[in-house]
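User: Write out your own:

AI:
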Amino acid sequence: MEQEFHRIRRLPPYVFAEVNAMKARARAAGKDIIDLGMGNPDSPTPQHIVDKLVEVVQDPRTHRYSSSKGIPGLRRAIAAYYGRRFNVDINPETETIVTLGSKEGLANLASAISSPGDVILVPNPSYPIHQFGFIIAGSAVRSIPVTPGPAFMEALEQAVTHSVPPPTALVLNYPNNPTAEFADLDFYAEVVSFCRHHGIYILSDLAYAELYFDVQPPPSILQVPGARDIAVEFTSMSKTYSMPGWRIGFASGNKRLIAALARVKSYLDYGAFTPIQAAATAALNGPQDCIDDMRALYRSRRDVLIKGLNEAGWDVPSPRGTMFAWAPVPPAFQHLGSEEFSKLLLSEAEVAVSPGIGFGEHGDGHVRISLVENKHRTRQAIRNIKTFLRNYDKVLEDTEKKRAAAE
């Protein structure tokens, strides 16, 4: 029996899948693909964190079921992090919860607080789970601008005026993936005031809080007075401590939202493996110079990438943070869109990037370039791209011939 399932029907084909399939075929054919697509940190997890995992896993008592809410020591460490980093007091019993990475937490909270037909406000472009977590839950997603400022606030006003039913929640993400834009406390304060007045919950994704260059450290929305009345904030160990495969993160803030997430999670999982939670505790409580090293590494890669691309004739803004550059598709290729341009870059320059369309239709004029290769490989990618751009007229001519032949 074949039938389409309702929730699956609402999920379009994953845009990155075709580019990933091309990448796999090229590598199988022996091509040396330089992968600047996925935001997958390449640095090893700091040794003291690994050592703690190895130490704790030797105790067979830690091999049993853990706690879906997170072990007490880790929740206390999260509260301590908020205290020293943001000067925000978090109650480790009621205002924070451990998640299997921020992605799981966002998706499960979406399921907990929304119903079919609810309206959710999500910036476009955005990290896919920000909108599809709610789409999977059956909600309707309304796009708003990603850039903080008057246009953003105007979009909030219009959403409240014209949405039926009124919006349930707003998703924020600064520093932003994929655009690398930042928000300041004045902006957060304006958004909090608006959302408190209109009864709109705020879900803030702060996964890149520690990845900033040449700017002040990004703030937390929970620093705004009254934010905890309506807001919860997600972050992750993946980027800060180079722990992407460990799948550990946390959510902090509004007690009601934390309780809702805890209730859903209690049915779905028993929490991350206890030794992983113990290692995450060691990461938060231990020496933090590894974060300075991580930040310096990504800053140096950014500088090499941006300088090289601009010298190659591709004008790409220098990101102030995150591990991504949000690169406009070069003018000669804009008519192709970001997905076709990404395929061309892969086939002709042997460099993989993420098409902006994968983050929403308003991202189609860009590609996301990740700072996940060392400087030697990054320079190699730049050389390949430079050759590709120098021969763009021939590349486009060949592309049009292939397109015509296929029709």
